[in-house]
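Appendix C. Worked example: Putative L-idonate 5-dehydrogenase
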Amino acid sequence: MKTAEEHVRPIAPASPMKAVVVHGAGDVRVDERDRPVPGPGEVLLALEWGGICGSDIAYWKKGASGTAALTHPLVLGHEVAGRIAALGAGVTGLDVGRPVTVHPARPVGDGALPERIAGRTNLHPRVRYFGSAAFDPHTDGGFSEYRTVPADQIRPLPQGVGTEQGALAEPLAVALHAVGRVPDLRGRTVLVNGCGPIGSLVVAAARYRGAGTVLAADLAPASLKVARAMGADEIRDLTAGDTLPEDVEVVFEASGAPAALGPVLRSTARGGTLVQVGNLPGTAAPAALGDLVTREITWIGSYRFVDEIDEALRALRDGLDVTPLITHRFPLERAEEALAVAADPGSGSSKVMLRLAAGA
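Step 2, the predicted output written as structure tokens:
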């Protein structure tokens, strides 16, 4: 059996590394870059796995994700895990070879949040996030063989949780934050509309938090199959004549499609709660919203997460199985093909994983 240190790839002085870099709309390349050196308070990671997210696809297809537009090349990826390869000066409590994942968010500046949102660091007005073009210079992501990371963003993986699962702690944290927007799901009936990777993880998170019955709806049979494997009690195939259920007390809208809002609001019980998880367009779009008022529905948003990545790791340790979410695996060198599969509704893909190290 290999020791933890033997799992880490050898590092030659000033050696190059490979990274998945988007240069503009439709232009993603596997570039060679200099391997970084950890500075004081930093950790050098030898990365092993990365999960492709919708924002990675958006940067590749459009050169932008939401309002964040590329002005220069960007290393993609914020769902990553690997092993510690080296420690910078002053780093304690971490060991070379330890398998870890990363909390990809880092608030910028020292300004305190208003009391009404104290502690909700996901709502900080300025946050650097792995693989994001929101700032110039951009914040490179982790789809690379190595990356330096501030030590306080490192999250060690629990015993028994491998780095492929560990790379999914970030999107699982997004799902846990979403279900946490409703104080207590125990015993309650829940509907999840939209069963892409985040929606299917919301199914799993709702089940983990004690929901009584979890219903899942989508237009794609392949996505519904994943949702069922992630814990849905009942599925609704909206292309096969199924309809959304009526009078559901708690609904999670994870498709982000404005056209879905009317039916989803109608499905929400009078006085019920609708949690918006899917990102809605930043531009005007038609949507039928009348039931929001006449049914007195509480409609709340959910954005990224605070520290739920720690709970995600505990859930993985305790047996929450995210492997049904993984439908495809590609080596780093085939990153463009992996992005194309993840972006293609006809591919049957859910979470597409990049193997960032040959031996992972």
